[in-house]
Amino acid sequence: INLDDYVADVETSDELITWAYTGDTHLQVSIVDRVASITVLQQDWTGSDTIVFIATDDDAITPLSASDTVIFTVTPMGTGITHYKVLSIKAYPNPSEGLLIIELSEVLNGEILLQVFTVQGELVMNSKQRMLDNHLELNIQDQPSGNYFIRLISPDFTETVQITKQ
Asked: Strands (DSSP E) along 42-157, which ranges?
């Protein structure tokens, strides 16, 4: 969702408007370069979830904010896919000081997309990684302490695991 389409400020350029959101219970929101991406956290979840997007200008004395409420509805759909790969994902040690091993329940060799999100939905890492057998190493030592979601994406699956960095 291109957030620039939903707000205008004659005194502030789009690049200087900061975006925030509240209300993601079943959905994960990521805002990068004023574009919001919405992802379902649990693959089998269906229903509605309400997200409030908040835009704030850069006026240091009297910043102005505006918000808009959006209801996202997720409904089941037939995909036509006859084979679905179900994998489990583990991250250890958890909690961790920042060096983790990500392990899949099945051997997978090849390139995957690895994403790390804060619990607020901010994408803090987005990189292609090479799987060696069924695991890879992840270093998030440069991130502050807190909870994170690690998402692995390949052509065959998308899996997410939550970790705690001490």
From this structure: 47-56, 65-74, 89-92, 99-104, 110-118, 123-131, 135-139, 146-153
Q: Mind listing the pLDDT tens digit for each residue in 97-152?
A: 999 998 887 766 678 889 999 988 889 999 998 877 788 889 999 999 999 999 88
Q: What CATH topology corresponds to 89-165?
A: Immunoglobulin-like (2.60.40)
For the chain, domain boundaries = 3-74, 89-165
Q: What are phi and psi of 58, to 5 degrees?
A: -100, 15
pTM over 0.85: no
Q: Which CATH superfamily is 3-74 part of?
A: Cadherins (2.60.40.60)
Please tell me the distance from the alpha carbon of residue 74 to that of residue 43, in angstroms, as a whole number. 10
- The whole-angstrom distance between residue 85's C-alpha and the CA centroid of its chain comes to 21
Give the burial string for 6-20 (b: 16+ CB within 10 Å, else e). ebebeebeeeebebe
48-94 confidence digits (pLDDT tens) = 888 888 888 888 777 788 788 787 888 877 655 544 455 678 899 99
